[in-house]
Amino acid sequence: MNNSLSYSHLVDRIKDAGVRPSNVRVHILKYLEEHSHPTAEQIYTALRETMPTLSLASVYNTATALAEAGLIRVLGMNGAGVHYDCNTHQHAHFQCELCGKIFDMDMPGIDCPGLEGFNVKKMDLRFWGVCPHCDALAQAATGLYFGESEEDEKQ
Amino acid sequence: MNNSLSYSHLVDRIKDAGVRPSNVRVHILKYLEEHSHPTAEQIYTALRETMPTLSLASVYNTATALAEAGLIRVLGMNGAGVHYDCNTHQHAHFQCELCGKIFDMDMPGIDCPGLEGFNVKKMDLRFWGVCPHCDALAQAATGLYFGESEEDEKQ
DNA sequence: CATCTCCTTGGAATGATTATAAATACATTA
DNA sequence: TAATGTATTTATAATCATTCCAAGGAGATG
User: Fold this and answer.
1) pLDDT at residue A91, as a whole number
2) Sequential DSSP letters for chain A
3) Residues A71-118: pLDDT tens digits?
4) Residue ranges of chain B with pLDDT lower than 50?
5) Which positions 120-149 of B are in contact with A (Cβ < 8 Å)?
C-alpha cells in the first residue's frame, strides 16, 4: 500500500505547497494520484458520486490552483480539453491514437542547436502513435496473425 | 527574390498536393509563406483587406484542407487559438512568453528510452521562455545594464 | 458569537472552432 | 457559349471547453 495516497499525507503535501487543504482540493489531488491524466470533465464526473454538490467550475479552479502551487501539471495533448497530471517531474508523453490513453515517458536529454541565447523556462515533448496493446490488436485484426487469441482488455 | 513565393509556383505546389488551387487557398498559403506562424484570426484580418468577402470559416476550412494535404502544419502552443506553419519539415518551436513570437528550431535527435514497442507516428517538441531580444530588453529594464542603449525594434 | 477571508457553487459569458445551408465559382460537356 | 454538376465559399448558428461573476457557505480569528 502506497502511503503517498493516504488522506493525511495528501493534506500535508498541499499544506507544504502553501495551499489550504480544503476538501475539494484534497479529493481532486487524490483522484489525480489514482488516475492517469484525467480531464476536468472526468474528474468532475467521478468525484460527483461522492461529492454531489461539486461543480465543474470548482474542478477547473482547483486544478488551476494546484497547478500554480506546483502540485500538478496541466497537459494539452491537442485533443478537445486539457489533461491534468500529478507527475510534476520533467517527463514526456505518448498518446495512443486508438485508445486515447496517455503514457508517461522519461525525458531524454535534449540538446537543441539554435537555442543558444534563448532563455528556456519550460519544455514539452509529446509523441502520438499506437501503443503496444493497440498495436497488437490492430495487427491481429489485419489477419496477419491467424490463430492468435485476442488479448484480454485491461484498463 | 524568392521564387517559391511567386503566385504560379504556389499554384503548382497546391496542385501537386492534389488540391485545387482556388483563390482563397493560394492566398492563404502565400500569406503563410510570408508570415511566421499566424493564427486563423490573423490570416483572416490580414487577407480581408484585399479579399473583402473572405470569411473566417473559409480560413479554418482552407487551413485544415492545406494541412490535410501536407502543405502546412497545425501548431497548438497552448495559448488561445492555434497557429499555422508552412514549414512542414520536422522541427521544434520556441515561443517567447513576453512578445509571443514563435521561432522555428532544428529538431534535435531524440532518443527516448521507454518508447520501445510504441509505434510513434508524430512527435512535437516545444519550448517556452524569453527570446534573446526580449531578454535584452528585460535586463535593460532591471537597471543592471546602465548606459546600454535600447535595441532597435525589428519585427 | 461576530467578523473576515477564502472556497465553492450555479449559471451566464466568452472565445475558438465546426456545422449547416444557401450562394457562388469552376470545370465539363453539349 | 449555354447547361449542368461539382467543389468552394459565405454567413450564421451551434458547440464545446473554459472562465467569469455574484451569491452563499465554511472555517479561522478575535
Assistant:
1) 97
2) --GGGSHHHHHHHHHHTT----HHHHHHHHHHHHSSS-BHHHHHHHHHTT-TT--HHHHHHHHHHHHHTTSSEEE--SSSS-EEES--SSEEEEEETTT--EEEEEPPP---TT-TT-EEEEEEEEEEEE-HHHHHHHHHHTTSSTTPPPPPP--
3) 999 999 998 899 999 999 999 999 999 999 999 999 999 988 899 999
4) 1-2, 147-155
5) 120-132, 135
CATH 3.40.50.720 fits B89-141, yes or no: no
* Predicted TM-score of the model (pTM): 0.88
When pLDDT is averaged across residues A126-133 and rounded to a whole number, the result is: 96
A45 contact to strand D (CB, 7 A limit): no
Res B92: pLDDT: 97
In sequence order, the 6+-apart residues with CB closer than 8 A to the CB of B112 are A92, A105, A106, A108, A125, A127
Q: What is the pLDDT of residue B146?
A: 54
Contact A110 B125 (CB under 8 A): yes
- Residue B121, CB, less than 7 Å from strand D? no
Q: Which of residues 78-107 of A touch B (CB under 8 A)?
A: 78, 92, 94, 97, 103, 105-106
B75: nearest CA in chain A? A78
Write down how long chain B is: 155
Domain made up of B3-83: CATH architecture? Orthogonal Bundle (1.10)
Residue intervals of chain B classified under CATH 3.30.1490.190 are 89-141
Q: Which of A112, A121, A122 sits opposite B105 (nearest CB)?
A: A112
**Mean pLDDT score of chain B, rounded to an integer?**
90
Position with higher pLDDT, A66 vs A112: A66
Specify the domain boundaries for CATH 1.10.10.10 within chain B: 3-83
